[in-house]
Design a protein that fits this description.
Blueprint (H helix, E strand, L loop, with lengths): L10 E4 L4 H12 L5 E4 L8 E4 L16 E4 L10 H6 L4 E5 L3 H4 L6 H24 L2 E7 L2 E2 L7 H11 L2 E4 L5 E2 L2 E2 H12 L7 E5 L5 E2 H11 L6 E4 L1 H11 L8 H7 L8 H7 L11
Helix pairs in contact: 1-6, 8-9
């Protein structure tokens, strides 16, 4: 294992305009690095940018030289381009996956089970390929990611609260959550890239605080300057509400209600030990 904790350059960021990507590009620039971005639209600032994504035919021919690669694109797109990245000098890979590989594997929704399988298969493919080709890898699995006004988790709830002034809950909403901010994930990715102990390991990354689903919703109300008004209801009634809401809220599924009562918690102590993971508590501000 390489004991050098210097970030190897040049640096390439795949998915640079994603939630985490924007924060990572800014963080790299603040620390004096000049990363190259690959994305469908230009990232903020003056970063060098390649128009495209990993699904483009022939994208391997347009990849720039890079020793360190941060992958914020869906991890199932990554295995196909690993040979091209290696050919252009990659020796260090930090790739984001998701704890959904665990939480959705037994979902009643076929689409969610498919996502879990895609994550599991992609992680295994990345680990195997990197081990066989001498690339040091780290896989980071965040829990529920938020970035006020931009994400589709916490901010989606905030939009519902703003529109309807109440938030229905399936049951009492006692399932535990660990929301993690996208900016903290960018800091963690950069730290992991420079930590020898993080090489060839996968980490679950959670926020600084564990709260119930209901408390999470109440904090969102407070972040909007509103008095919390969450409304517990029987699970069957909530499932019916989701079916009725589907034409107006495409992401609505009965599985959402089921998970409100489930503990979706993970342990980030290995990340704290190996690269100083120390995220903020959950107090969003919109």
């Amino acid at each position: 294992m390489d004991s050098d904790n210097t970030l190897k350059t040049p640096i390439l960021v795949l998915g640079a305009t994603s939630l985490i990507g924007g924060h990572l590009m800014a963080r790299l620039a603040d620390e004096g690095f000049d990363p190259v971005a690959i994305s469908r639209r230009p990232p903020a600032g003056d970063a060098c940018w390649v128009d495209g994504d990993l699904t483009d035919p022939g994208v391997e021919d347009r990849l720039p030289p890079a020793a360190t690669v941060f992958s914020l694109s869906p991890i199932w797109l990554l295995p196909a381009v690993l040979p091209g990245l290696k050919a252009r000098g990659m020796v260090r890979l930090i790739a984001f996956s998701s704890t959904s590989r665990f939480t959705k594997v037994n979902s009643p929704e076929a689409g969610e089970r498919a996502v879990a399988k895609a994550l599991i298969d992609a992680e295994q493919a990345v680990e195997t390929w990197c081990a066989e080709n001498g690339v040091a890898w780290t896989i980071l699995r965040p829990t529920l990611i938020y970035d006020e006004g931009h994400d589709e988790n916490v901010s989606r709830i905030a939009r519902l609260v703003t529109r309807f002034h109440v938030m229905p809950l399936s049951g009492r909403g006692e399932g535990l959550r660990q929301p993690v901010h996208a900016a903290d994930l960018a800091v963690g990715a950069l730290a992991a890239a420079q930590a020898p102990a993080a090489q060839d390991r996968a980490y679950d990354l959670v926020g600084g605080e564990t709260v119930t689903y209901r408390v999470m919703v109440d904090r969102i109300f407070e972040g909007l300057g509103k008095t919390p008004r969450s409304v517990p209801m029987p699970t069957g009634l909530f499932a019916l509400l989701m079916r009725l809401a589907k034409p107006f809220y495409p992401g609505a599924t009965a599985a959402m209600g089921t998970r409100m009562g489930q503990d979706l918690t993970f342990d980030s102590s290995p990340a704290a030990r190996d690269f100083g993971w120390s995220p903020r508590d959950f107090h969003p501000r919109f």
